What does this fold into?
Amino acid sequence: MLQQRANSSEPILLCQDLNLNGTCAEVFFNPGACVGVPTNLNDAVTSLSIPNGFVCTIFKNINCQGNNIFIIPPGANDLTIQQFNDEMSSLLCDIGECKIAE
It folds into this structure.
């Protein structure tokens, strides 16, 4: 498993296949900073896991540019549902929570 470090205590797990399977990489991040997807998974991510206490925006292009979607923990097991399969090139995560209104 590849690791790309940018100083978070828990990494985001990016995987090529559904349900966090196939080739995967742990991506460490600084909250609020854009991080590129490892080269071997660029435009090839189908599922991802996000640590609790963080919210992330994933982007189609490098440098956190272009079309994007918002992902909350625990992540996404199938990005085809969000029409973002094999589209991701960068991400930006920050400390936060999303709560569903009652």
In short: Strands lie at 2-4, 12-17, 21-27, 34-36, 47-49, 54-61, 65-71, 75-76, 90-95. The first strand starts at residue 2 and ends at 4. Residues 35 and 59 are 10 Å apart (CA to CA). The chain has a mean pLDDT of 89.
